[in-house]
From TrEMBL:
Organism of origin: Rugamonas rivuli
Pathway(s) the chain acts in: Lipid metabolism; phospholipid metabolism
Enzyme Commission no: 2.3.1.275
Protein name per the record: Glycerol-3-phosphate acyltransferase
Subunit-structure text: Probably interacts with PlsX.
Protein's gene: plsY
Length: 209
């Protein structure tokens, strides 16, 4: 029973879209209406509001970390195993991708996945973050950095901890992240992908209803 309610709680935590919340708080357009139309930190940055983008990044990462940290922190008290922690990791990630609070229109999961990895192990998250930063700095493409980091994340986990239930959760997140970036892959191959920091005129102010 503990496994069920913890998984559901993790999904609900993941369903909080900080891109939408922060855009409303900072008075900018809904990120689902401009740029890539993805409710994530990179698209919020296209509004030109760096503070909103940073808060979105922190919020999306923090919810992934929190769900996993709580599961690990209370693992003994709740008598749950590693398989439950793996389910919690996947559930909070799925909540971000398909949030129940926002008609199942969510982001691509990069920041939330990083938060999950940091929750599982700080060194795992740090290694993946360094990979993302290196690729992003070299090529200025957030999507490319995310894809490369997703490719290496399961490798890092296996290297650090071997084959455990959480490894399959990391594999699942990496596969879903690649799936959510399918359009970006096409744009990268066609040379049409937007670089980090590019702005969208549609995000100057919220659209009137």
């Amino acid at each position: 029973m503990n496994t069920v309610w913890m998984t559901v709680a993790a999904y609900l935590i993941g369903s909080i879209s900080f891109a939408v919340v922060m855009s409303k708080l900072f008075g900018i357009a809904d990120p689902r209406t401009y740029g890539s139309k993805n409710p994530g930190a990179t698209n919020v940055l296209r509004s030109g509001n760096k503070a909103a983008a940073i808060m979105t990044l922190i919020g999306d990462g923090a919810k992934g970390w929190l769900a996993v940290w709580l599961a690990i922190r209370y693992q003994d008290q709740l008598q749950i195993g590693d398989a439950t922690i793996a389910l919690v990791a996947i559930a909070v990630f799925l909540g971000h991708l398909w949030p129940v609070f926002f008609r199942f229109v969510g982001g691509k999961g990069v920041a939330t996945a990083l938060g999950v990895l940091l929750g599982l192990n700080p060194w795992l998250g740090l290694a993946t973050l360094v990979t993302w930063l290196a690729v992003a700095y070299a090529f200025r493409y957030s999507s490319l950095a995310a894809l490369v980091a997703a490719l290496f994340a399961p490798f890092y986990y296996g290297l650090l901890f071997g084959v455990e239930p959480q490894l399959f959760a990391v594999f699942a997140m990496s596969a879903l992240l690649a799936f959510r970036h399918s359009k970006n892959i096409s744009n990268l191959l066609a040379g049409k992908e937007s670089r980090i920091g590019s702005k969208s005129k549609e995000a100057v102010k919220p659209r009137k209803k």
